Sequence to fold (906 residues):
Amino acid sequence: MTDKYTQFVSHGVGKDLAKKLGLPQPVVLRRYKAGEPLVPGPVLVLGNGNGSTVGADELAAALVGWGLDVRRAALPKEKLGAIILVLDAVEHPDELAGPVLTAAPSLRDLAPGARVVTISRTSASAANPAVAAARQGVDGLLRSLAKELRAGATANGILLADGAGTTSPSTLGALSFFLSGRSAFVDGQFLTVTSGAGRLSADADKPLAGKVAVVTGAARGIGAAIARTLYRDGARLVVVDIPAAGDHLAAVANEVHGTALQLDITAEDAGRRIIDHAVERHGGLDIVIHNAGITRDKLLANMDEGRWNSVIGVNIASQLRINEALLGSDQLHKTPRIVSVASTSGIAGNRGQTNYAASKGGVIGMVRATAPLLAERGGSINAVAPGFIETDMTARIPFATREVARRLNSLQQGGLPGDVAEAIAFLASDAAAGITGEVLRVCGQNLVGA
Amino acid sequence: MPAAAHSESAPHETPVGQGTLRRAVVVGGNRIPFARTGGAYTKSSNQDMLTAALDGLIARFGLQEERIGEVAAGAVLKHSRDFNLTREAVLGSALSAETPAYDLQQACATGLETVLGLANKIKLGQIDSAIAGGVDSASDAPIAVSEGLREILLDLNRAKSLPERLKVLSRLRPKDLAPDAPNTGELRTGLSMGEHQALTTAQWKISREAQDEIAFNSHHNLAAAYERGFFDDLVTPYRGLSRDSNLRPDTSMEKLATLKPVFGKSLGAEATMTAGNSTPLTDGASTVLLGTEEWADARGLPKLAVVVDGEAAAVDFVHGKDGLLMAPAFAVPRLLARNGLSFEDIDFFEIHEAFAGTVLSTLAAWEDEEFGRTRLGLDGALGKIDRAKLNVNGSSLAAGHPFAATGGRIVASLAKMLHDNGPVDGRPARGLISICAAGGQGVVAILEAYSAPEGR
Fold:
C-alpha cells in the first residue's frame, strides 16, 4: 500500500494544503496493470544533435511497430507519455544542446507518470576525451533531470556497450521496462546493455511463460512479492524459505501454484537440493532469485561474532555456494538467469549496518565476477538494490526516522515490495539477456549516497 | 508397466476389480507440529488444523486446484457440527473443490486406517490418488449438555403449546445443567486408558526404569531428527510453533526418575506410570499423500514407500482377558504370517507410544513363550525385536499424541526413513507400524521402501 501521507496529498484538500505549505507532494505512482497502455500518451523521440539520426529513426520505427503513438517533434500543448533522447552518436559536449534544449519545453507537457529515457553509449568505451565527456555528460544530465521531474514522472538511461545498438533486443527490453509502470520506483538510474543477446517476449503480459524459477526467502515481504510477480508473468515457481517460516511459505506456494521447499540456504548441500527439487518436480531450472536476507544491526563497536557471521552467512556466502552448484550443474536449462537482491546500504553504506552492507556489497562484487562465468552458457546475472521499501521490516523503524527515510528520494515516498519484484522479473526475462553483471537500484533515486 | 496401467481419463485395460492389484505408493506427508493441550492451538478447531495440514501438503507437492481421488480423515474428539469435517477441510484448502472426502473414526487407529482404506482403493483401481489424515484437539473438545437436559430440550422442541412447553421445562433440575465433557475413560469399565494400562504394565512386570528409558529415547531420537533436518519436508509450522511443544531435548533418566506415578496409584509399589512415560493430551493434525506409480510419475513426485498390507485386531478387555491396549500383540503375528515374514525381515519398528508401558507390554508378550503358545497358537514366543530398530526418530511420548493424527505422523515419517535407508540385503527396506486404540482395538501395517518393479 502507498503510505497514508501520499494518499492524503494526492487529492482535494490534502493536495491544496501540501502545495500552500510547501510540503513534499508525493503522488500515487503509475504501476503496471495487465492490459493498460505502456505509456500514458504519445512518445517523443529526439535524435543526436549532430545530424546523425539513424539510431533515433530505427528506434522510432521499432516503437511504431509496438503500436505506440510516436512523435519526432512536439506538438503544442499535447500531453506526452514519454520523451526518448537517442544520444548514441554524440561526440562532443557541444552536441548535447540540440536534443536537450529541444526536449526542454516539452517537460512541462509530460503527463502524470510519464517517462524520460536517454539512450547513449558507455563513456568507458570511448577512447577520445571529447567523446567520453559527451557520453559521461549524459550521466549528470539524466540524474539531475530525474530530480526535477514531478507527478510520478521518472528519468532513466540506457547505456550501450560496444556490442549493443539502439534496437538490440535488450535495449528495447530495457526501454520497454523503463517506459512501463513496471519501473515505477526506478528513477535516475542507468542500465548497461552489454550485448546483442536476448529476445522480446511474444506475449508482453507473460514474458516468463514456460520458465521454472526459484525464489529464496519467499515466505513474506519482498520475496513473496517476487514470487507473485514471476507467477503473474507466467513462470512456474519453487519457493524456498527456512523451515520455521514454512506456514507463510505454504500460503505463498498455494497462491502462486508452486511448490514449497523448506530449506536453510546456508546448508552445505542447499544448491544441490534446490536443483534436484526443480528438476524432479518441474523438469528443469531457468531462473534463480537470491532474495533471502537478514539484518542484525549494531554499531561496529558493539558488533559480536554471531551478528556478523549470520549476516555474511545468509546474505552472501550462501549465494556463492548455491551459484557454485548451479554453475557446476548440467541440469539447468539453457540461458540460466540469476538475480540477486543487493541493497543501497551495500552501495552507500548505512550506520549500524557494517555487517549487512559488507554482505550486500559482496553481492554486487559477486554478480560482476559471475557474469563472465555464466556468459559461456548464454546466461546472465544481475543485482537489484532496493532503497526504502514499505515492508514489515521497515514498518518497525521508529516513526520519525521512517518518515524521513521514505521522503528522502526524488519520488518522496517509499517503494513497494512489488516495485523490487518488477525489476527482478525484468532482469530474469529473456528480454534482458543482453544485460549482465549490472546493479539496478530500485530506490526512487534516493538522495543519500546516489 | 503393470497390466492395469491407468490414467485419469483412459479406461482400464482390465475392468476394475478383475485386474492385478496396483501398488499404492506413499508420496510424502505433512503435519503441523503437535502442541500440548492448552498451548499454541488452544483456539484452533479440528477443521482449522486439518486444513492447515492439508494446505502444507498441497504446497509441498504443488497440488493446487488438483482433483484428488479421495480424501479421508477423522477425529476422535469430534463436535457434532463436524459431521463432514474432512470435506469441509478440503473445501477450505487449495485443492480442487471437486475433490470428494469422507470421515472415518477408529479411535487412535483412525489415521492409519485412513491410509489402509485409501491404499486399498488405489490398489483396486478405484482411485489414482488420495490423501489420508487425522486431527484431534483436546483443547477445543466438544462439551455436550447432560442427558437429562438433552431429553428436555428435544421434548421442548416437540411441544406444541405454551402450557405443554412450560410443563416440559418444569422437569428441569439444577443437576441437568452440568455439562458432559469428554474423557478418555472406557465406557464399559469406567477406567481411564492410563488406569487400564497400569494394570497391564503391572501384569507384564514392566519396570519403571525400562519405561523411563523408552521415554528418554523417544525425546532424544525426536530431537536428533529435528536437528538433522529430518522433519524439514514432513512438518509445516503452525501458529508460531515449528517443533512439537512436548519435546524435551534435555530430559534425562534422572529427571524422569523424579516424577511421581499418576496412574495405577492403587497398585502401591508397583505404580510405575508417570507423566514422563505417558503421552500428554495433544492437539495436532497430519496428512499423507498416496498415489499410483503413474500418478506420481506424471507429476514428478517422489515415491517413498509402498503400502504392503494391514491388519486390525481387538481384545476382550471388558472381562479382563487381555489388557485394553494389547490388540496389536495379536494383529502383528497375523499380519506377519500372512506376508510370510518374521521380525528378522523388519528394519524399522514403529510402535506407537501411548504409554511406554504399552510398548513394553507388547514386546514382553511377543517374547513370552506361554503367550506365544496359548494365545497366538505358535510353537513358542513370536520373537524379540532389535531395540536399535525401534522408534528411531522418536514417537508419541516425545511428539505428543493427537489421537487421530498419530497414524499419519508415523506413516509419513516411516516412508521417508525407508526411502532414505536404501536396500537391505538386496531387498527394499521394510517397516512395521503398530497402533493401539481405545475399545481394545489395534491396527498394524507393513510399509516397504519403493523400488521400481522389474522390467520398468
Summary: Chain B touches chain A through 25 residues (CB under 8 Å). Confidence is low (pLDDT under 50) at residues 1-12 of chain B. The CA atoms of residues 356 and 392 of chain B lie 15 Å apart. The two ends of chain B are 7 Å apart (CA to CA).
